[in-house]
Amino acid sequence: MHTIEHTTAVAASVALVDTVATADLGRPTPCAGWDLLDLLSHMTVQHRGFAAAARGRGADPDVWRVESVVEAVRKDPARAYSGAATDALEAFAADGIGEASFALPEFGDGAVFPGTIALGFHFVDYVVHGWDVAASLGVTYELPGSVLAAALPLVLAVPDGEVRQLDTVPFDAAIRPVDGAGELDRILRHLGRRPEWTAPMLSDS
């Protein structure tokens, strides 16, 4: 079963996305080449894909197709996202989920992981993607210390180096941490984010 820290991170991302208006969807994000619509569509379909994987259907490529959710996100980002997040958390609450096999084809053809590992991937994703959304919106991102403490060792276990150049690895090369950095700063830098990133001003034209 997923942990309370995992649930808290997902709930925090839902609360952030609840504040997104359709006019915000063109905002740039810390994810190179993605605007907020791209990011939220990715986050939404990943929830759907992980929920399907928890139910034994992760090998179906259709459950990971971002095109399947883009229009719903464009029309009502908060509703589309919260529905997908709820679906994932409900799937993760099933008995024996930690021992289940999750097919996650985005990690390579035929890639299958134990539930405990797969849930860790999902947890880390939504800790970091929550920050991505907050940074895009220009708002403060805060998570309880217990959530950051639980996520940090999972993040630091993600290998750095040449492996980050593979198409199946979703993170850029790690950025050297600064002295005295807090846990969120360390998480972001290890996964290739720059905590000081701010969205450029959008043109009024």
TrEMBL record:
It comes from the Bacteria. Pfam families: MDMPI_N. One of its GO terms (molecular function) is metal ion binding. Residues 9-134 form the Mycothiol-dependent maleylpyruvate isomerase metal-binding domain. SUPFAM superfamilies: DinB/YfiT-like putative metalloenzymes (SSF109854). This is TIGR03086 family protein. It comes from Mycolicibacterium chubuense (strain NBB4).
